Amino acid sequence: MGLSWGVLLLIILSSSGVHANSLKSVLKDSGIEVGGWINGGATYNANNPSDGFNGAVTFADRANQFQLNQLNLFLQRAVPSEGSEWALGGRFDFLFGTDAIYTQAFGISAFDENTGEPSDRGNWDLNLCCKSTRTYGIALPQAYLEAYIPIGNGLNIKAGHFYTPAMRPFPRRTISFIPVPTS
Q1: Is residue 51 part of a domain?
Q2: Distance between CA atoms of 1 and 16, rounded to whole angstroms?
Q3: What number of other Cβ atoms are within 10 A of residue 126's Cβ?
Q4: For a tag site, which of 83, 85, 97, 108 has the least CB within 10 Å?
Q5: What is the residue range of 50's domain?
Q6: Number of independent structural domains in the chain
Q7: Residue of 145, 36, 40 whose CA lies nearest to 95
Q8: Rounded to whole angstroms, how far apart are CA atoms 176 and 169?
Q9: Measured between alpha carbons, how far is 57 from 63 in angstroms, rounded to an integer?
Q10: What is the 8-class DSSP label of residue 69?
Q11: Domain annotation covers residue 140
C-alpha cells in the first residue's frame, strides 16, 4: 500500500513540475490535502453492565467510560469533473479508535458481541494493531485512486477500497484539526 501511494505522489509531483523546498509548498502546489478529526466521549448506562458493553448499539458501545472514538487522518487529491486535461488523484483514510470495528468495510464487527470470539471477516485491515483489546483498533476505511479522462464530456473513474459500495463518505465526527492552509 505504501509503495503505491509513494508512486502516486511521485507521478503527481513530477507531472505538475513542482520544485518546492517545504512540505507545505509541495502539498499546496500539487493539490494534496492533508486533514483529519478527533472525537471522544462517554456513554452512561444506568444498568452498569459488568462487561462494560452497552449492548445492541454500534458507536459508543462501551458503558460508563471515556472512549477515543475516532482519530482519523486522511490524504487526498481531488480531481476535476470537467476540462481538457487528464488528472489523477485519490484518497487514503487512517482511523484509530473505538469506532474502528464499525468503520471497517466487512459488514460485521471484529468480535461476536455475545461471545467475544473473533469473527471471520477477511483481512483488509484486520488486526493492524491492538489484538489484546476488542475496544480499540485501526481501520483503513478508504484507499482509492481517481482519474479524470477528457473524453467527450469527461469521464471520472474511481478504483480501490471504499467505505461503502455507493462510494459515500463514512461516519465522520465533526471536530476538524490539522488544517493545511491553501492561501
Answers
A1: yes
A2: 23
A3: 18
A4: 85
A5: 2-177
A6: 1
A7: 36
A8: 15
A9: 11
A10: E
A11: yes
Running DSSP on this structure, what letter comes out for residue 37? E
Q: Is 182 inside any structural domain?
A: no
Chain centroid, CA 158 distance in Å? 16
Q: Which residue has the cell 499546496?
A: 28
* pLDDT by residue, tens only, the chain of 183 residues: 445 555 666 665 565 554 445 777 888 888 899 999 998 888 888 888 888 777 767 777 788 888 888 899 999 999 988 889 999 999 999 999 888 877 766 556 667 777 878 777 666 666 667 665 667 888 888 889 999 999 988 999 999 887 766 655 555 555 444 444 444
What are the grid coordinates assigned to 67, written together?
A: 472512549
Using alpha carbons, list the distances in angstroms from residue 125 to 11, 93, 129, 161: 26, 12, 9, 11
DSSP element (H, E) containing 52: none
The answer as to whether 127 is a domain residue is: yes
Length of the chain: 183
pTM of the entire predicted model: 0.66
Give the CA diameter of the chain. Answer: 62
Residue (of 141, 13, 170, 162) closest to 77 by Cα position: 13
Q: Are 2 and 140 contacting, i.e. CB atoms less than 8 angstroms apart? A: no
